[in-house]
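dumping the sequnces here before i forget
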Amino acid sequence: MAGTQVNPTRMELTRLKQKLQTAVKGHRLLKDKRDELMREFLDLVRLNMELRLKVEEGIRGANRNFVLAKAGMSEETLRAALMAPKQEVILKQGSKNVMSVDIPVFDYDTRTADQNDIYSYGFAFTSSDLDGAVHSLAEVLPDMLKLAETEKSCQLMAAEIEKTRRRVNALEHVIIPETQEGIRYITMKLDENERSTQVRLMKVKDMMLEDAHKYSEKQK
Amino acid sequence: MYKIAVMGDYDSIYGFATLGLDTFSATGDHEEDAKTLRRLADSGYGIIYMTEALAETLQKEIARFAGSMTPAVILIPGVQGDTGRGVASVKKSVEQAVGSDILFGNQ
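..and the predicted 3d for all of it:
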């Protein structure tokens, strides 16, 4: 118990015992929480990586197509073609609670139901490569949204796991041993006090008996 | 109701406009881009896709949104190819949670 001073009283002892009980219970609960979070996190992060690789591949492919499309027509035509998009994506966000971590759930709606509204230009002046490029990008979009959902969830859960792990460690290695040490100190101090009181009482009794019966004089 | 934004250099992102995502071209000026990001975060964008190249310059600003649910800043490869930062960010969260990257260490 280096550094901290505890009062060796019974009240303090009860308090510390209660604290120890709470700490042990809290430690067990937090440990369970950490394990469960970790299990969920590992599943999620594997999905995260899978989606990321898929999306990156998809976007790389779409980018290649766009470069090709751009090569086939003039910059102005391209800019004019993409200037006024017809489609609009509306994002709906809910949330899900996983072991006290709020993770987002994304859902999306397009403004119009027509899938061909992504082609916001007349086909007369644009190259067909552009259609292909836009189409390839549109195919990646659902995965991109899924990626956003899982990646954000992973980040939030990782932060929570780190926090929980710190708490578990603090309880396990600092709070619980310190409280146990405090309890031991108080018990020993109280025992010591009791022994010294007993010895004093015995001594006093001896002295009183000596006073009454004068043993030492009779022995002579 | 949230919206989705895409940030990055014009060549990497102009295609997303056709899908109905709002595109914001990077100006190359750090202050200006940071301001755009902050403005987007405040004005109801739930997801902000950002090219890895731009994210490189805005690390500090992106880190501010790490703890909150929205906006989710998600890295995507730009037209110049990817820098591996997107995959690195996934690895980073594994490292943060597990302590060391035991899942994708060899990828």
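Strands of chain A lie at 89-98, 101-110.
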